[in-house]
Amino acid sequence: MDSKDAPAQIVAECEDEETNSIDTLISTPIVDYSSNEEKLEMMADAFRTILRCVGEDPDREGLKKTPMRAAQAMLFCCQGYTQSLEEVINHAVFEDAYDDMIIVKDIPMYSMCEHHLLPFYGKVHIGYIPRGKVLGLSKLARIAEISCRRLQLQERITREIAENIMKAVDCEGVGVVVEAEHMCMCMRGVQKVGSRTVTSTVLGTFRRDPRTRAEFFSSINHN
């Protein structure tokens, strides 16, 4: 499915899992149990247990450092829990009279499925119409990272990005499309390699005005 075929909301259901409706999805809470060093030790111990449970010897040569490496990788992939919208924007909101659509597309994204702890990855396309203020372009990608670098649902990521941009710059409207391939559908379960999930959220004038919405979808599909 191409993003041009995406309706205003596409909610994908994960096989064998009960998913929430898009209206009830909320931002993932930020929880900090301990220092990074303590977290890494606890996570490394957990990975050692996992290795034993799958039939491996965590003390053999090739796996001795794997638990700590896996713990470090997991913290990196979940660094969004330590980021806030205010810190990421860092005052990069500028007054400007530009009032046409701004689009940044093909932003690479990587996240982790909260149901199976397997990765999903793809692209994010973002468009917004400013109202007297514009965001530094790199901040759109950084706002996307806040949501992507967590245990997530693609539907939630899409809506969080749109809502955070609205909050950051108080714009006329926002459109966000996420296209991703989920390893939980490719490596296990239904094993449909190459299938992509497309989700979209439109807020403000993007939702109210069909012409604005059509311009956005047309622009992100124009090479």
From TrEMBL:
Q: What is its EC number?
A: 3.5.4.16
Gene Ontology cellular-component terms listed: cytoplasm
Q: Which domain of life is it from?
A: Eukaryota
Specify the pathway.
Cofactor biosynthesis; 7,8-dihydroneopterin triphosphate biosynthesis; 7,8-dihydroneopterin triphosphate from GTP: step 1/1
GO BP of this protein: tetrahydrobiopterin biosynthetic process; tetrahydrofolate biosynthetic process
A GO molecular function assigned to this protein is: GTP cyclohydrolase I activity
Q: Does the keyword tRNA processing apply?
A: no
Which InterPro entries has this protein been placed in? GTP-CH-I_C/QueF, GTP-CH-I_N, GTP_CycHdrlase_I, GTP_CycHdrlase_I_CS, GTP_CycHdrlase_I_dom
Where are the membrane-spanning stretches?
none
A Pfam match is GTP_cyclohydroI
Q: Which Gene3D superfamilies match?
A: 1.10.286.10, 3.30.1130.10
How would you classify this enzyme at the top EC level?
A: hydrolase
- Family assignment from sequence similarity: Belongs to the GTP cyclohydrolase I family.
- Specify the protein name: GTP cyclohydrolase 1
The lineage, from the top, is:
Eukaryota, Sar, Stramenopiles, Bigyra, Opalozoa
